[in-house]
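User: C-alpha cells in, sequence out, please.
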C-alpha cells in the first residue's frame, strides 16, 4: 500500500499540521513516510501545501505530480490541485470555503463542512482535524488512535489539553464521511 496525498489551503488553516500529523501517525504504526511542506513567504494567509506519502514499502521519491488524494481547504488550491488527482482518486474538501468544486467524473469528490463542525465544537482551529477524520474514514491508512499519539508529538505540551477535542473532530469528520459514503 502506498498513498500519496496533497493537503492544500491558506497558511493558518492547519494544512501543514494535517500532513505532519498523518506522517507521524504512520511512523507510530511502523510505516514509511515522506512529508514535504511548501509555503509562500507569508506566515498566515499565503498559500500552503504539503505532500505526505505513506507506504508499507520504501518511498523512492518525495516528488509527486499526480496524487491519490487531495485534501483541499480553499478555492485557489482546488483550482490548482484538483486537476492533479489521478483518475480513480479522491478529493476531500472544506465546503464552507470552496464555492466551486471540481466537476471531474473520474474521481470521488466529498464536500465536508469542516469549519461549521469545528464551530459546533467551539474551536475553529480544529476544522483541519474534521477533514483528516473524513479522509481517514474513506481511506483508513492509519487509525485515529495513532493520530492522537502523533498529536502528542506535534502539539506543544501546553496544547495537550486539546487532545480530546481533536479526537472529537476526527470522529465528527469520520461520521460525516460515513453518511456520504452510504448514499
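Assistant: Sequence out:
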Amino acid at each position: 500500500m502506498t498513498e500519496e496525498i496533497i493537503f492544500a489551503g491558506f497558511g493558518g488553516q492547519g494544512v501543514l499540521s494535517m500532513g505532519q500529523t498523518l506522517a507521524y501517525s504512520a511512523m507510530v504504526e511502523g510505516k514509511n513516510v515522506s512529508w514535504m511542506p511548501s509555503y509562500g513567504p507569508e506566515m498566515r494567509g499565503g498559500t500552503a501545501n504539503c505532500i505526505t506519502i505513506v507506504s508499507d514499502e520504501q518511498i523512492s521519491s518525495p516528488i509527486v505530480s499526480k496524487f491519490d488524494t487531495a485534501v483541499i481547504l480553499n478555492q485557489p488550491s482546488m483550482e490548482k490541485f484538483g486537476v492533479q488527482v489521478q483518475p480513480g482518486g479522491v478529493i476531500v474538501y472544506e465546503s464552507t470555503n470552496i464555492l466551486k468544486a471540481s466537476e471531474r467524473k473520474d474521481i470521488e469528490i466529498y464536500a465536508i463542512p469542516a469549519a461549521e463542525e469545528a464551530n459546533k465544537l467551539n474551536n475553529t482551529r480544529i476544522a483541519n482535524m474534521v477533514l483528516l477524520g473524513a479522509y481517514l474514514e474513506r481511506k483508513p491508512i492509519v487509525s485515529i488512535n495513532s493520530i492522537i499519539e502523533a498529536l502528542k508529538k506535534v502539539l506543544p505540551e501546553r496544547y495537550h489539553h486539546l487532545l480530546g477535542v481533536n479526537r472529537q473532530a476526527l470522529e465528527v469528520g469520520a461520521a460525516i464521511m460515513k453518511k456520504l459514503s452510504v448514499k
